[in-house]
Each structure stands twice: as C-alpha cells, then as structure tokens.
Design a protein that fits this description.
Length: 981
C-alpha cells in the first residue's frame, strides 16, 4: 500500500468512513450482487449464479486431489473465496461481499502521523522533531536507548479491530522492548490499563511475553484475584528474526497473539474480567518503546491498524470463515497432496471440500472421491486390526480407542453421500456393518458385573495370582516384583484352553461349545488327600464335575465329568430333592482350617453346605448345619454384606474363595466384592466390581473395570460419578450415522433403532427405566423385556452431569447434550423419530450449559473443581504447566479454577451444541465470540490431552470438524442435503 493510500485510509477510518471493500477485494458487479440465497440457506433465485460459477470452475481429474483452479485460482480472480484473496464467493448463502474483509491503515513516516515520543523518561511525552535515539522511515521505527513513539489509535471507536507490528531485537539479552496499548498516557497518579507484548530479559532470556492489565476485581475474593492476576501474564518461545505481534480488540475482550500463538488468554477466566471497555479504558494510544539504555537498537516494522468485520449474522458465516481459512492454508493443501496422509484424515479433508462447496458453491467431487478412495484403502486393515481387540484391550467402558476414534466417520460419510460412487458406498457399508454387529454384541443389561468363578492361585513367590471367568472368558492377573500392582494377561476364551474342551472320549465342560459360550459354575483348587502336597483343579458346570491333576490331565476316578447328583454327599446335601440334570452349585471352595481339617464348602440355591474330610475313613462328613440358609450367617447379613436386607431363600453368591492370608473369605455377589478377615467390614462403593478403580488394593487401574466388567452398563438408581454417558454417546453417533446413510439395510437398521431407543434413554438417565417413563408406549422386538426395566443414573436430580471427578463437568455435559441433539436432528431429517433420545435433554441443557456457562462473556459462571479421589481426602487438584526449552508452554494439565483443558477446551469450540439443540440466538452469540477470539486462524484454541501448545500446530481440525460439520449437517436451520450435489 502506498503512503498516499495509507493516509487516505487513515483519514477514512478516523472519520468512521470505512471503504466498502478492502484491499484485494473486488467490488461485485451488478450481476454478481443480484438475487442471493437467504442466510438460513434457502436459495432464492440463485440458479444463474451457480451456472456462472460452473463455467468459471474447472474440476480436477479423478487422480488429482489438489485444489482445483476454481478454488485456488479463477475463483480468486472473480471475487471468489479461493487463494489468498480476502473476498468471498457471491454464491454463499448470504451476502458476504463485505464479510471477513480487513481494511488496513499503515503508519507512514510523516511526523504528523505520530502523537508524540519520549526520550529517557516515558512520563514526559514530547512532540516535534524526533530525538537522535529514534529513526522513523518508511514505516519502520528504529529505537535506541530508553526511547519510544506514541501513536493515537485511529480505531478507538471501532468494535472489532487489531493492531500489528513486527518486532526485531537482534537476540539481545539486556533489553526490555514492548508494544503497549493503553487508555491514558502515564502520570504518577493516574492508573493505566492496557495490553503489553514484547521482550523482557529481566524475566527470561528465552521468551516473549504479554501482559494484560484490564482486570476487573470487583466482588472477587483475594484467592480469585491472585489467581486471575497470575494468569494474565504468558510467555512464548523466543526466536531469532522479526516476530509478528498482534493485539486484538473484540466485543468480548482484548488479547495478544505472538508469532501466531494465542496462549490461554481466551477464554476469559471465570474470576477476573479482561474485557475491553470502550467507555472506561479504551485503547487510546499505542506505544512502541525500548525501556532500557544500551545494547543494540530495536526495530518495529509495518505497524498497521486493521478494522475487522464484526457483523456476523449467522452461525454458518462463522463456519464458512473457518472453512475458508482452512482450505487456503498450507497445512490443508499439503495434507491433500500427501499420499501418506493417515487414512482417516483423508475423510476429514474430503468433508472440508464438501462443506466448502456447499458454502461457496464450488465443485470438488473428483477431489472428494479421490480422498475417499485413500480412506477406503486404509479402512479395512484398520478394522481388521482393531475389531478382534474390541472387548479385549484395557479400556474404560466401551472401547475408547476404537469407537471414540471412529464415532464420527459414519456422519462424515453421510455428509459426502451425493459425491460417492456406488462402489465406495458399498465398501464403506461392509466395513461399518462389521463394527455395528460387533459393538451390539457387547451391549448387555446385566447391570452389575457377575463373576462366574473367582480364584486365587499360589504362584510360588508367597503371593497369589488371581483368575476370573466371566461370559466364557478367563481373565488372569499376576503381581509385579513389588507385589503392589497387578499385571493383566491377555484374556483367553475358555474354548481356547485344551483341557476344558477335552476329547470325544473325555469331553470337558467346553466340549462342542462355541467361542464365548462356555460357562463354568464353580472352579476351585483341591489339595490332594494322599499327602503328596500337590494341588488339583476341580470344576463344576452343566450339572457335572470335572477334576484335573496339577499337570492338567483329567482324573480317571471317579469317571471324568461325573454328575454331581451321583455323589452321595451331594445327593443328600445340595442336590437333595433334585434330579441328575438339575443340580449345580453356585460356589465351591476347599479350605484348610487352623486345626488342619480340610473342608469342602458349597453354596447352592441360597443355602450353605460344609463337609470335613476324614483321612481315616477316606470320607467327607457333613456338618450338622448343612442346608442352613445363607441369611443365617451373621457376617453375610451384617451391614453391607452380600445378604444384607435379603429374605431367606433370596440370597445368592456368585463366587467364593478362601485365601490363607489376611484377605480370607472373599465373595462376589450383587455386583460387589466382599472380603471377611481381621474384622474388616465391607462398605458401599468400595466393593463395587465395575467401579473399584480408585479403591482396589492400591491398583494403578482397576483390574475388573478394565477386564471382565468392561462392557457393562451398571444398573443403579444411585448416581455413578464416572459415568458411561460419553461412551454411550459415541455409540449413538456411530449408530445414527450408519442408520441415516444406510436405512435400507434390514434387519440391521431395525435393530439399530431399538438400540438407539435404549441407549438414547440411558444417555441422560436419572435412575428410572424406560417402562417407568414411557409405560407401554415403547416395545422391543429384538431386545428383551429386561431392557425396558433396566435402570441407570448418569445425571443428578438438578440435571448436572459429572465425569472424571469434575463436578459438574461442563465438558462432558456439552458432549452428552450435543450428542442427543445431533442424533435427534439427524434422525428427524430422515423422518426417523426416537422419543427417548430427548429424555431429560431440556433439563440437562438448562442445568449444565445455561446454568454453568456465560456464553455472551465467554466465561464460567462458577468455580468448577476437580476432586482427587485417590486419597479419600477429596482435595481439589491444581492446574499445572510444563515448559519446553526455550521457555514455551509444552503442556497444560487442567484440573480446576476452571480447567481450560477439561471444561473450556471443548466449550470453546462447541457452539454447534447450542445450535443443534435449537437455541439459535445464543448459538449466534457464541459463534461470534469464537470468531472474535480466533480471527487469525492461527495457533491453537486450547491444549488437548496430549498435544503440546505449539505455534506450529494447526488448529483447523478443531475449527472445521468441531464447529462446521455438525451445524452444517444437523442444525434444523440448515438446508444442507447430503444426498444432493
């Protein structure tokens, strides 16, 4: 821009007379500014425009997945959105001829452009001839010693603008140089509010820093003030060369971006307020200064004041903006061109093209198909690798790595519908169907986790290994050298253990059983009565008993696999009154008492039977109390025992084992584990098999929760803090995406509707069953009636939602509410209505999002702590930072006050949740705030769980996928039809 243009623009901006179209933006012709689609997406008279755009756009060949000329070249020349042009396509649903335009003002080397300067003493502002310590020429200020220039802000009355300059410091180590925006010039008695960025070598030699002084502390406690003050100053890794520093002023706050990195200054903290206030403390002046003497000069280049476009009228305008910035980015174009781009990322790239085509009326069908081919090429092997591990790898609830990582893929494929070839659709359907069928097989309504057998085995080290059989699978753990942490072996299906299968001549309990179908009733280890000291294995299953020597060979006497009923002591004990094919045991264990007696102890049909071995007669003598009801055992009926509150005949144990150490008698029943030794009294919560991860004998991770209890939705009318709400949401997303894309796939589609009904209800459950809420209005054909009566609670009575010890957790509430809204809308747009999806949706939205999030100010409404459950002290955990050499933030662990990671990370990019819920006015306010806070499209919105906050990390996955996809596809206001090109 020439000096004259700069002066003219400066004058126009000072007078508030902004140009109608910024640099690089051509004025639309009369034809181009003709009939436009409405902001809600309804096209009004746009046929001629689309046809004209068709003529301008050249589609690439199928083998070329790069940007077509229509996106990157010709479109830019015609005022389109491609390339680096700041204009936008006139075919966008809404008039964007002035949207996203940057109108620049350059500071030229005319002394009249400056308000003043200072030399040695910044309290004394002078005008006139610049001193020897300042050179100002062609927009570059070179400053030596303790000098600086002061510029009046020509945009002080603007609502949304930025100021930027390039700082060069020659990598000095003895200087303080800064760019400072302030409301009043300094005096000894007047406070100055503002925003500073620069190099402060008195603090660190390796970092740039920025500091915010617009902090309102009214009504805050001292703790809140201290925390807010400490959070204002941020450091960014220093490097050689000129650094671009940007100061943004938006309707919701001011912030600094250094070298493309916006570190944690947004969103505003719930405590202090960093809000730009036009009346109280506007940025009236900009100071470029060097605040110490000596050393090399500091240069400030290309100072610009840039008015930005604040008039966002639709959520879709924000989506379109982020798509535009993304598709123009080097990162996107490199990923498209790189054949080694990870297989799933090709699907996201394809969607970005599809969304871009919708918003800007371009055509990239060939590129989409080529990218989908790359996706399909890796899809099959990915599923081949993961599907056998589903249900086997150590995960929380439903398989996290597999389902959570692929939950949105059916949605994305659905969005690409009209662009896909029949062969592509068929290939994807085949692979997705495999996942659907496998995951449905793991959804059970057991409610609690019930072990079939549970044993402790001496391992020769003085410790005991542990084995569980459940749902036909054996789980085994051994302890590490410190005997503190259990190490899990790979789970093994019982039919893969040869001795359990046996042979046609000596069939074992699993003979002729398929994978997952073999069930053992009891399993115990038997000390030989011949005095040899050896131990054998004894199993009961299917009314029979199977005994094995220590080497695994079957016992020949009595006959292998004999009926329990045929043993005299059993026939007169637990099998009394039963038949040969109708006698089985609930638990069975052998115990050597302190007096040396060997006792066989059995529970069956709610009663207990004990037999003592008589070596002299080689017989087993029954106890006189045999046949007593389990409720007659005091420790079982005591507080929190397995029979507590149960009537006679109504108490049953799943497993029972005895270890000759302090753990003693160990029982599982009712989904809990009970240990009776040294006066230990079971207590609630501590015992739960599915949720013992925080309390289980010092285990690093719960061996049951990550093992046999992995896929159970716990049945309870009491709140479960670490809920399965998000895991259920992943399945809701996967199932819905498949159903709306392949509704003709019967009977799979019909089964999916029932699973969506069941899972959708329990996604936001409050301790009730489907039948309690819907009566007989809901009926199942594929699922059993127990699914109608199943209960769970993933929501508090007030509607708030917890997870990972955050109470309440805004992050997870957004996920739960968002999934329910998206599923409801996606199904409704395909004329599928599942009433249970919206159960408690309104209550959850009001309590968690409206009740916890001040969207209009981008702040939390309340303190959100995360509790440390590991010590039973429930102390509030603290946020922590990690720094990488030479001083940049490499990681941020969010715990509380509030957690920018756990709760603000998702909240910041999740305005689509509110859009999809249907709160359109608030969604627009939220989307505007996201736009205001991330206008540059550089840096990262937040540090994720594992990724560093790096200036080189591109954030478009967060922007485009999180924001644009769901609102584009599933907002009820959007007219996007994925089946129509």
């Amino acid at each position: 821009m020439s000096k004259a243009t700069g002066r003219a623009s400066l004058l126009a901006l000072v007078l508030g007379l902004a140009a109608s179209c910024g640099p690089g933006c051509e004025e639309p012709t009369a034809a181009e500014s003709g009939p436009m689609p409405h902001p809600d997406g309804a096209v009004d008279g746009g046929t001629a425009d689309v046809a004209a755009n068709d003529a301008r756009t050249r589609d690439a060949t199928a083998g070329d997945v790069g940007l077509s000329d229509g996106a990157a070249g010709d479109a830019a020349a015609d005022g389109g959105a491609g390339g680096n042009d700041s204009g936008t396509s006139n075919n966008y649903p809404g008039d964007l001829s002035s949207k996203f335009a940057e109108q620049e003002v350059l500071l030229v080397d005319d002394l009249s452009e400056l308000y003043g300067h200072f030399a040695l003493d910044h309290y004394t502002i002078l005008t006139g001839t610049l001193p020897a310590c300042i050179d100002f020429d062609t927009g570059t200020a070179t400053i030596r010693d303790k000098c600086g220039i002061v510029v009046s802000n020509p945009l002080v009355q603007s609502e949304f603008y930025k100021i930027e300059v390039e700082i060069g410091d020659a990598n000095q180590q003895n200087l303080t140089a800064l760019m400072n925006g302030i409301d009043v010039l300094w005096s000894h008695s007047t406070p100055t509010h503002g925003l500073s960025a620069g190099i402060d070598t008195t603090r660190t030699l390796t970092s740039y820093w920025h500091n915010h002084t617009q902090l309102s502390t009214a009504g805050l406690s001292q703790e809140q003030i201290d925390f807010s003050s400490a959070a204002q100053s941020r450091f960014v890794a220093r490097r050689q060369g000129d650094i671009l520093v940007e100061m943004y002023v938006t309707p919701i706050g001011t912030y600094v971006v250094i070298d493309g990195a916006n570190y944690l200054t947004f969103p505003n903290l719930y405590t202090g307020s960093m809000v730009y206030n036009q009346q109280l403390n506007p940025i009236n002046y900009l100071v470029l200064g060097k605040w110490n003497s000596g050393g090399d000069p500091v240069t400030f280049k290309n100072l610009r004041f840039i008015r930005l476009d604040p008039q966002i009228q639709s959520v879709h305008e924000v989506n379109a903006y982020f798509l535009k910035r993304t598709i123009e980015s080097d990162y996107f174009q490199q990923a498209v061109a790189d054949s080694a781009t990870p297989y799933a990322d090709n699907l996201w790239l394809a969607f970005i093209f599809r969304g871009y085509d919708y918003y800007f009326r371009t055509h990239h069908q060939a590129q989409v198909q080529a990218l989908v081919d790359r996706y399909i090429a890796g899809l099959s092997s990915h599923i081949d690798n993961w599907l056998p591990r589903y249900g086997q790898t150590s995960t929380t609830g439903i398989n996290h790595e597999f389902i959570n990582g692929s939950q949105a893929q059916p949605y994305v494929v659905y969005a690409l519908s009209a662009y896909l070839t029949p062969s592509q659709k068929w290939a994807i359907r085949q692979q997705f169907a495999r996942v659907i069928d496998t995951t449905m097989s793991y959804i059970r309504t057991d409610g609690e986790c019930h072990f079939e057998t549970h044993n402790y085995l001496p391992n020769g080290t003085g410790q005991y290994d542990e084995e569980v059989t459940y749902q036909g699978v054996r789980y085994r753990w051994y302890w590490d050298s410190s005997h503190n942490h259990p190490v899990a072996e790979q789970p093994l299906d019982l039919t893969q253990i040869p001795r359990y299968v046996g042979t046609v001549d000596q069939p074992g309990p699993c003979y002729n059983k398929g994978a997952g179908q073999c069930r053992l009733s009891t399993r115990t280890y038997y000390a030989y009565t011949d005095g040899s000291g050896q131990t054998g294995e004894s199993i009961t299953a299917y009314n029979r008993a199977y005994n094995y020597y220590s080497d695994g060979a079957p016992w020949p006497d009595p006959a292998f696999g004999f009926f329990l009923y045929d043993v005299d002591r059993y026939q007169n004990g637990p099998c009394l009154g039963r038949s040969q094919n109708d006698c089985d045991f609930e638990t069975r264990t052998y115990v050597t008492l302190a007096n040396g007696d060997l006792v066989e102890s059995i529970t069956a049909y709610g009663k207990v039977y004990n037999f003592t071995y008589d070596a002299g007669t080689d017989t087993w003598d029954p106890w006189p109390t045999n046949g007593d009801d389990l409720t007659s055992v005091p420790q079982y009926t005591g507080a929190y025992g397995p029979c507590a509150g149960r009537a006679a005949g109504d108490c049953h144990l799943d497993t029972r084992d005895w270890r000759p150490d302090p753990d003693g008698d160990t029982i599982t029943a009712n989904g809990n584990i009970y240990r009776f030794s040294a006066g230990e009294v079971p207590r609630p919560g501590y015992n739960n098999l599915s949720f013992c991860e925080w309390f289980a004998d010092g285990c690093v991770a719960c061996r049951y929760r990550s093992g046999p209890c992995r896929f159970i939705f716990p049945e309870s009318d009491g709140y479960i803090g670490d809920t399965f709400a998000e895991e259920i949401g992943w399945l809701l997303a996967y199932y819905t995406g498949y159903l709306v894309h392949f509704p003709e796939d019967h009977p799979r589609a019909d089964r999916l509707k029932e699973y969506l009904t069941f899972l959708g209800f329990h996604h936001m459950s409050d301790g009730k069953s489907i039948r309690q809420v819907y009566g007989n209005a809901v009926q199942f054909s594929y699922l059993g009636p127990e699914y109608l009566d199943f209960k769970s609670r993933y929501m508090w009575d007030d509607g708030s939602i917890d997870n990972h010890n955050f109470h309440p957790s805004l992050n997870y509430a957004l996920g739960v509410v968002g999934q329910a809204a998206v599923v409801r809308n996606a199904l409704a747009k395909n004329q599928i209505f599942v009433s249970t999806i919206t159960n408690n949706l309104e209550r959850a939205y009001a309590a968690n999002i409206i009740g916890r999030l001040d969207i209009r100010r981008f702040k939390h409404l309340a303190y959100v702590p995360r509790l440390d459950w590991s010590t039973w002290t429930f102390e509030v955990q603290q946020d922590s930072y990690s720094y990488a050499d030479p001083g940049s933030i490499s990681d941020f662990m969010g715990m509380t006050k509030p957690s920018l990671l756990e709760d603000w990370g998702s909240a910041f990019t999740s305005y689509h949740v509110i859009e999809n819920y249907g709160d359109y006015d608030l969604a627009l306010a939220y989307a505007r705030n996201v736009y205001y806070g991330t206008y540059t499209g550089t840096g990262k919105l937040f540090c994720d769980h594992s990724g560093p906050c790096s200036v080189s990390t591109n954030s478009f996955w967060n922007f485009t996928f999180g924001n644009a996809l769901y609102a584009l596809l599933f907002s009820m206001q959007s007219d996007f039809d994925p089946r129509r090109p």
